[in-house]
Amino acid sequence: MPILVVGSVALDTIETPFTRMDGVLGGSASHCVTAASLYDQVNLVGIVGSDFPREHLDFWRGRAINLDGLQIHEGKTFHWHGRYHMDMNARDTLDTQLGVFADFHPTVPEVYTQSNLVFLANIQPQLQMEVLEQMPKAQLTVLDTMELWINIERPALSEVMKRVDVLLMSEEEVRQYTGQASILKGVHHFFDMGLKYVVIKLGSYGALLFGADGTYFTAPAYPLEEVVDPTGAGDAFGGGFLGYLSSVEPIEHRRYSVDDLKRAVVHGNILGSFACAGFGIDGTRLLSKQDIIQRYRELVEYSHFDSEKRA
Ligand code: AMP
Q1: What is the atom index within ligand 1 of the atom nearest the CA of 231?
Q2: How far apart (Å, rounded) are the C-alpha atoms in residues 201 and 196?
Q3: Residue whose CB lies within 8 A of the most ligand 1 atoms, among 83, 84, 122, 147, for a mutation test
Q4: Is the dihedral of CA 250, 252, 254, 260 positive or negative?
């Protein structure tokens, strides 16, 4: 089942406590499509400037990634500059340059409208809505966002939230949006808005899945000895989550089994963990299906306990 992804395609500057890198391939959509293409055909919607290196396009063309919806305009590609703290779960944005993104309006090519799964990766909520409106038949819609849009585009973001099935958020974003100190209370706020599932990304601590039907699942993070660059881990999470779902059949129209959603969260964690192993997409660029299966088995091993349900 093809996956449509809309989001930013960027050239980032990244500073970790140990290294600084300029002109790194980044952007929410870049990380997501690279991860999701390990599972299925991906249809990318976005924009780059005339400065965008051709080698990145060639790499994506060599994968199952359709670039018909990627506009190339005269001007500069979106640029983001971030600096990580020693605890790499925390970072500061030092600069954001919209470049060609400033006048961007996404057009979904006809062939993309067959995508059953839609990932609205982190970009302006108005642009996410424009894509959603062009995809009325999607079976599952998943939304990611960031602190910036909660701060400056809350009404537009809320409109998108009311229209999607699954929301991905960090704990801080839940508190920021809902004003609730308790994540559980915050999540119920989203169910009242009509969301079916909320996934809480916990960085190096894994992820939680909450369902409006009462589902609760906690997925461990894969233990990493070294984090090179966590940028894009959340987007790669989205790629693994949707990538896995693209490989299974819904139990009925627009409805996946809870077990499949749990496995999708684990695949999200796996792709997120790989993303941390390199700058830009280097952590996911050379992965194989076998690498994913190996990490999946390890995570099953690490997180199972008390198979006899003794006490
Ligand atoms: P993540 O680490 O998963 O939050 O994703 C980081 C990526 O998001 C970076 O590669 C940035 O280029 C991109 N990004 C940062 N700020 C924005 C923004 N305001 N809109 C869209 N993409 C952004």
Answers
A1: 2
A2: 17
A3: 122
A4: negative
Handedness of CA 90, 280, 66, 106 (dihedral sign): positive
**How many Å lie between the centroid of ligand 1 and the Cα of residue 89?**
14
Ligand 1 atom 12: the closest Cα is on which residue? 27
What is the tens place of the pLDDT at every residue in 138-168?
999 999 999 999 999 999 999 999 999 999 9
Considering 7-11, 254-258, 304-308, the range whose residues carry the highest mean pLDDT is: 7-11
For ligand 1, mutation pick of 28, 48, 170 (most atoms within 8 Å of CB): 28
Phi, psi of 308 (to 5 degrees): -90, 0
207, β-bridge pairs: 201, 219
Return the H-helix or E-strand segment holding 14.
strand 10-15
Greatest extent of the chain over all pairs of C-alpha atoms, in Å? 65
- Identify the band that residue 253 occupies on the pLDDT scale cut at 50, 70 and 90: confident
Mind giving me the DSSP string for 118-161?
A: EEE-SS-HHHHHHHHHT-TT-SEEEEE--HHHHHH-HHHHHHHH
Q: Return phi, psi of residue 81, to 5°.
A: -125, 120
Which residues line ligand 1 at a C-beta cut-off of 6 Å? 8, 10, 12, 26-28, 80, 96, 122-123, 148, 231-235
The tokens for 236 are 């790669």
Q: Is the pLDDT of residue 311 over 80?
A: no
Whether residue 62 has pLDDT greater than 90: yes
- Give the C-alpha separation, 276 to 185, whole Å: 31
| Ligand 1 atom with the shortest distance to the CA of 235 | 3
Joined together, the tokens standing for residue 40 give 């299925």
